[in-house]
Amino acid sequence: MAATINDRPCSSASSIGDHKPEFLTKIDNQIARINGIFLLAKEDGVVTIGEDRTIRVLLKRDNDQFWPSIVEYLTSVPTAFYFDENTLCIIVGMVNGAVYEFVVSPDLNSLQQKRSWHAHTLQVTGVLMSHSAELIFSCSKDKTIVWHCANTGTKIGSYVIDNLCTTLEFDSDSRICFIGDYNGSIYVLRVVGNSAQLVSKLSAHTAAISSLAWDPVRGQLYSGSTDQLVIMWDIAGQKGSCYELNGHNARISSLVLARNASRLFSIDDVGHLVVWDLKAKRIVAPGWHEKDNCEICDAPFFWNVRVMWDRKTVGVRRHHCRTCGQSVCGNCCNNKTIFPAMGFEKETRICNTCHTKMQQYPEQFDLTPLAIQCELNKGVAAMHLQEELGRLVAVGYDRTIMIWDVRKLL
Ligand SMILES: [Zn+2]
Ligand SMILES: [Zn+2]
User: In what residue span(s) does the FYVE-type domain sit (predicted)?
Assistant: First the structure.
């Protein structure tokens, strides 16, 4: 945990505590990299899709070892995955653009293909089914999102965005579809019959969206990106508020939401896990000022040639104070702090004015963490949470499946 600049008693309303996930078991020696995973609630086991073109169901046997009860070979590599344990329906999207729907037998020993579509011309990056809307969605690197009727399998409509689609989420009640793209934008589409209207385009990330999580109760969307940032979008608030959650130093690979406990789990490429308290009151980070001189000492920045010439001085690099947004020179922002209320769980640069204020009025700047940080010690490719069981499954890039007890974090 980062050092705080002021030591003071906790005054935050956060209930996050400092518990860590407890490691339960691992399943190693997987033959190929796993692209998607689901932790079963009714059985001790997992469903996976892998680079070896398989769908596998692994169940724990009497000797405590996990063995496959299903190994289904596909014609192409599965790259996107959806599973509903109640209906036992599996949807997989493939690297070649096809989408397949399977049904697992109730004893989890066999799999039957129900239907398939050549939905896309390039790799499928996201699939999901909405039972209440009776729709199956898929999105792809071919820049399209397609929806089919979940009952008949007929294609209903499609929509093309400007960039490669990377992931998607859907709100059944409002029929809003959220699509992440390769440039860091999130498209908000309202799906009506065979057409979709672009409601909004959320632009704050600076690199590809890697994961989206939608919370229909709070009306909030969470996005994780390869720009290392998690953003909380207040969609229902309709004010366009977005809260930056800074806790990672590597690309975010997966987000999972604990809806009842109001926790968001974010994991990155080096295995750093952050569990965010979504009930905590947060402050929107300020916009960055665009100035040509330091707003504290007035030193010109290096592109401000006229002032540099007039004053016979050398220009300096511009930085931005993360808590007030001022444009400042290096000398005027040589302090770092965490500031959880603004989403900075890792230390960030602040200007000397803010630093002095924080020291003079510590009661106004609560620095109690609003997230738990821990290391899973390996880069994680996919993750799934069974909130009722309090269990998290994560699969590493090294093909190891790890199961954690996270009840104390919920
Ligand atoms: Zn300065
Ligand atoms: Zn400042």
Answer: 288-359
Q: How many Å lie between the centroid of ligand 2 and the Cα of residue 123?
A: 45
Q: Which ligand is nearest to the CA of 354?
A: 2
Point out the ligand nearest to the CA of residue 335. 2
CA separation for the pair 141, 164 (Å, rounded): 4
* Tens-place pLDDT, residues 161-197: 999 999 999 999 999 999 999 999 999 999 999 999 9
Of the chain, the end-to-end C-alpha distance in Å amounts to 20
Looking at the CA of 325, name the nearest ligand: 2
Contact 343, 244 (CB under 8 A): yes
Asked if pLDDT for residue 238 goes beyond 80, the answer is no
pTM of the model: 0.92
Ligand nearest to the CA of 332: 1
Question: Which ligand lies nearest the alpha carbon of 326?
Answer: 2
CA of 231 to the centre of ligand 2 (A): 21
Å from CA of 363 to ligand 1 middle? 27
Ligand 2 center to 284 CA (angstroms): 14
The ligand that comes nearest to the alpha carbon of residue 352 is 2
Where are the domains positioned within the chain?
19-285+371-409, 286-369
> 302: part of which helix (H) or strand (E)?
none
**Ligand nearest to the backbone CA of 351:** 2
What distance in Å separates the CA atoms of residue 410 and residue 407, rounded to the nearest whole number?
5
pLDDT (tens digit per residue) in 46-92:
999 999 999 999 999 999 899 999 999 999 999 999 999 999 999 99
Please work out, in degrees rounded to the nearest 5, the angle formed at the alpha carbon of residue 303 by the alpha carbons of 301 and 306. 95
CA of 111 relative to ligand 2 center, distance in Å:
58
Give the whole-angstrom CA distance, residue 397 versus residue 28: 11
Look up the CATH superfamily of 286-369: Zinc/RING finger domain, C3HC4 (zinc finger) (3.30.40.10)
The whole-angstrom separation of Cα 67 and Cα 61 is 7
Q: How many residues does the chain have?
A: 410
Cα 2 to middle of ligand 1, angstroms: 26
> 19-285+371-409, superfamily in CATH?
YVTN repeat-like/Quinoprotein amine dehydrogenase (2.130.10.10)
Q: Which residues contact 152 (CB under 8 A, 6 or more apart)?
A: none
Q: Do residues 255 and 224 touch, judged by C-beta distance below 8 A?
A: yes
SS3 assignment, position 380? strand
Q: Which residues pair with 320 in a beta bridge?
A: 327
